[in-house]
Amino acid sequence: MAMITANWWSPDDVAAPDQPRVLLFPFAGGAAHSMREWIVELEPEWRPLVMQYPGRGSRSREPFAASVADLAAAAFADFLAMDDGRPPLVLGQSLGGYVAQAFTAALETAGITPRSLVVVSVRALGDAGGPPDAAAGRLGRTRWHQQSDDDLLARLHELGGADLEVFEHPALREALLPIVRADLAIGDDHIAHARPHRVRCPVLAVHGIGDRQVSAAQSAAWATWTTGAFQAVSLPGGHFLQQRGPVGLRGILAGLPARRSELNDD
Q1: Which residue has the higher pLDDT, 141 or 113?
Q2: Structural domain of residue 153, as residue ranges?
Q3: Does 266 fall in a domain?
Q4: 125 assigned to some structural domain
Q5: Among 89, 234, 244, 248, which is most exposed with the fewest C-beta within 10 angstroms?
Q6: Higher-confidence position of 200 and 140
Q7: 230-259 pLDDT, tens per residue?
Q8: Which tens digit of pLDDT belongs to each residue from 66-79?
């Protein structure tokens, strides 16, 4: 990944540098390289730019973000400096879904309407439903960042990320768990206290079948957060479905209506 601005990174070998941009927001504990599967899904129709959150990678000396709103504001300020006038696609996974939604709201306030907002493996804001199964509810999602290392690692293993073997190395575990905890903390705070704005652009909510943290209904509840078209899809693979194989996102996006009314058109 090559740094484009203070917050945005792009693959070193961009397949289509002149294409419209897709802006990617990683999940909790993730870094720019963590979105590699989504980059493959969206190139060459889109030029990927990934937000690199502070506190990791080459930004490891920077303090962690204090809030989801701070991450979205930083991403927005940098994006304005490099905006080429073409509507971007915005995608966020898990924690990144909340950052992406706040970022999209800021874009629309500035008069920029994205092509679509894609939220992957993330329960809708304001959803009062509990975790989708009893196992996920034993410790309570909103307290994950306060748990012991062993309990937190057990919860992460339940989600099934493909890179969890890094936590088997003591030095890496010591370096990475604070990043995960910091991200989970601001995500939980956002869920509890944020008062987000509805967006106007189409929204696609992607749910991974078997996700032990987010149910299909909790994902589909994002319908209330847009006045534009909405589509919810459930695909195999669990919370990190993109790590299990191709998702077919380009094809799904091609069928997403531009307006909510088109959902009922014959």
Answers
A1: 113
A2: 2-261
A3: no
A4: yes
A5: 248
A6: 200
A7: 999 999 999 999 999 999 999 999 988 876
A8: 999 999 999 999 99
